[in-house]
């Protein structure tokens, strides 16, 4: 998972979403001084705001080295479902990082801004965001150039990491079938398989790719290599249920917003996984129209934030 500390901002440790996270993240979640969920690292507890501040500090440094000048102000984006306390915690994180936070804006609003949709008066927009760790769907309405979030829904346990794990499981199975060796308990081999799973990206633009991992493991008879051709059709078959999973949250968001799929005027895609042809096909079937594809889905939210910053 993308292991975003963002998800831990403000919920108390007893919150069911935190309970669920505890078993799925590679770090320890502990009870903070104020009863909130904190992260433990090197025997020390950090609040999610502190972790977010470290990330913002790093981004500030990256921007400064690229621009060759000081960066002191920022527009920060947050998920549309963030409440006031979570937004305030994000502002605090910006301040800890040495930034003056000019504005906190919703991620789907930023994505729509990147496409200039604030000029489309009276239109209803669906923002479909399938990222590394989570899925979010937001229904927005534009009035007087202002976006109103009519509804939001999603799945906090669906993202690129889940697609990668599905591919890793397949590779482990194929290797075991061919060599009789189970790589499941070999941490180093699993790490290499996870890296290889990124080759799924190539299948968004081509029908076939080759996974080639020399010396993946060894036994008495010598080293073993993993070489396998992976087709787009095979990948789509492996992750079909994952691709279908956003449909229910999308339908729930439409219902909560009081609109039908046919009443959605524009569909915006966010997140790297939305490049996958099968994902785009499901979105098109669901909303009955082609989604916007002009901007880079990885950068579209940041681009919108930059436009907002002016």
Task: Summarize, please.
Belongs to the heat shock protein 70 family. The chain is α+β, with helices and mostly antiparallel strands and 310 residues long.
The CATH architecture of the largest domain is: 2-Layer Sandwich
Proportion of helical residues: 25-40%
Give the CATH class of the largest domain: Alpha Beta
Structural class: alpha+beta
Percent of residues in β-strands: 25-35%
Using the coordinates shown, work out and report the CATH topology of the largest domain: Nucleotidyltransferase, domain 5
Are there runs of 5+ residues with pLDDT below 50, and where?
A: none
SSE sequence, one letter per element: HEEEHEHEHEEEHHEEHHHEHH
**Helix run count:** 11
